[in-house]
Amino acid sequence: MSQMDIGSLSRLRERVGERAGSTGWSSNACAAHSLSLTLSQKGEREQQNQNCSDPFLQRGNGKIWSRRSCLLAAPALAAQLLLARPAWAGSQIEEPLADAVRTALRAAIANSAPPVPVFSSTEARLGYLRWLSAMSDRLFARMKDFNTRIEFLQTVWYEATRAGLESSLVLGLIQVESAFRKFAVSRAGARGYMQVMPFWARLIGGGDPGTLFYMQTNLRFGCVILRHYLDTERGNLFMALGRYNGSRGQPQYPNAVLARQSNWVFKDTPKPALGKSQVAT
């Protein structure tokens, strides 16, 4: 049975900032540390369970199937791909952009800062960890791999926050647009998780539409574009969502996204801090 990449888990713990200050552990720091360990241990258990049930692993010795066995399994995999639901994305309209708007959008896209969250307080970090754990549980059925799921959620949170959007809105939009499929392509040619049209790569990116299949690039473009449409529509979310889908003024798409958004709303319920007479275990 293969083990999870310990290096990946270490990087995850560093990202969420579990390390306590050099002056000692506060009760909140202990809670953050505990949450980080719980999340990592959950990932290890998921990986072990997947390895036990993975049809491409022989039971007991963990060796990969033979080449002949993989070839025999290929038709079933191809059938699943053919039956996959097409992406919903409509044809976003390529509209003329003022030079100032184009420059601002290019600057927003070009900033390639890594999705590492920065918090103003330990309680804010704890809230993020609770959100990450809850969203990971909800997304498990659609994205089985722990590392992929955590990296995806961290990037969604980072890009949504960066663009001034609610993470629940972005997740609801992704559910409608691509059903969380990284390589989804719509009939109109929109690509990736957030179904970004290729012309955006030419207008505000480097010109290569193939990069829209990269996770952070796709989420960065999608969030920046949705923010642009919100600003264009002066904060009218209904109209901005319609513009994102190329169906401005029609209710079906905005209603679908807002309905799916409710699946990803997180109501934080922080646990009370430990009192002086209580000891963290």
Description of the structure:
- The protein starts with 5 loop residues before the first helix and ends in a 20-residue tail after the last helix.
- It has helices at 6-15, 27-53, 67-82, 99-110, 122-139, 146-162, 167-178, 199-204, 215-232, 237-245, 252-261.
- The model is unreliable at 1-10, 16-25, 53-65, 76-86 and 275-281 (pLDDT under 50).
- It has 281 residues and is an all-alpha fold.
- The longest helix is centred in the first third of the chain and has 27 residues, at 27-53.
Report a brief summary of the structure.
The chain is mostly helical. The protein is 55% helix and 0% strand. The model is unreliable at 1-10, 16-25, 53-65, 76-86 and 275-281 (pLDDT under 50).
